[in-house]
Amino acid sequence: MGLVEAWGGNAFGWFFAHLLEAPFNLYTALMNTQLWLAWVPHIQLRGKITDLDAAESLIRFIYYGASWELLFIILFAFLAVTIIGVIRNSFMWGCVRFLEGIGNTVGRLAAWFGLLMVLQQILIIFMQRVFAVSEITLGFGMSVTHDVSWWAEELKLYNALIVCLCVSYTFVQGGHVRVDLVYSVVSFRVKRIIDMLGSLVFMIPAAGLTFFYGWFFLWRTLVTPKLSASNTFKDLDQLLPKARALRWNVETIGFSPNGFNAYFLFKFLLVFFTFLVILQAIAFFYRSYLELREGPASEGRFLDKDTLGDPTAELVAKIH
Predict the structure, then answer these.
(1) What average pLDDT does this structure show over 19-47?
(2) To the nearest 10°, the Cα dihedral for 178, 179, 182, 183?
(3) What is the per-residue pLDDT across 55-86, written as a single tens digit (0 to 9) for each?
(4) Calpha distance 79→70 (Å, rounded)
(5) CA of 97: how far to CAs of 85, 173, 203, 290, in Å?
(6) Which of 102, 260, 282, 302 could bond to 153 as cystine, CB 3.0-4.6 Å?
(7) Dist. CA 260–CA 116, nearest whole Å
(8) What are residue 138's DSSP bridge partners?
């Protein structure tokens, strides 16, 4: 649209130009998906991307994945949903239930990796100490064979899956540690205001900054030539020429000769972790606003919390 070029002479004009262009940018992206998704059929571990259009689409995907354009699309959507929710509280409550539902569902599924981690550790110890094997084969139909050290190091991935994917679930369940020196003694309304400010001032900026650098940290282990965080401040036209040399180069180097060699999966988890935190921060902001507006009677409304089924255990969990 050219609004940023026309109004971008000062910070105020730059901000509102980007905000006004956000709906147009979103519409353009949705109507021209081939410009940034044509690379998907060409995914592989190694090799040059011979299709120039696919290579350029990957450059666009990486560039716009952590760009000002995407940031302002998200901001515009957040403001639009917030305005509708302020007018219709029932709509905002629906958003809260939906966003908290995402965190709960992902977290409850990811929690099963804890059981898998324990079972695999028992299997490793049993096979190594009793049968003294050097390799373990697992799988049904399509089996996978790796050195015992590979399976032992893979346990780190299960632990990372639990930490990164259960973050929102733990927040909804009230399981994160918090310092209540001030929070515990203030009134209900002040608590809700603190929660709202905490969501906007601390949670979202911290998660957003982590995503920004984590996004390029991820792609630097997947393709060459490597793109850095500074590339997002360059003009896209300066980056597209790199498409001619773009190639897949997925990092598969382990910390030991026969150890786990898919550490790039941890970079994916870092990006997804920030995504879940941002969604939960929005849900927490909306919940805090609604509870502030509707009063103490609305505290914990629609909150889907798990129960232990034992009153004593529930009391202990609440104390801790």
Answers:
(1) 93
(2) 10
(3) 999 999 999 999 999 999 999 999 999 999 99
(4) 14
(5) 13, 13, 19, 12
(6) 260
(7) 17
(8) 144
CA-based nearest residue to 127, from 138, 135, 116, 118: 135
Tokens read off for 308 = 């232990």
pLDDT of residue 202: 94
CA distance 59 to 242: 8
Domain boundaries, the chain: 91-319
Q: Residue 294 and residue 28: Cα distance in Å, rounded?
A: 39
Residue among 201, 79, 252 at smallest CA distance from 71: 79
Cα–Cα distance, 231 to 223 (Å, whole number): 14
Compute the distance between CA of residue 67 and CA of residue 55 in angstroms, rounded to an integer. 18
Going from the C-alpha of 195 to that of each of 97, 189, 277, 283, the distances in angstroms are: 17, 10, 15, 11
pLDDT at 232: 63
Please give the backbone phi and psi of residue 139, each rounded to the nearest 5 degrees, phi first.
135, 160
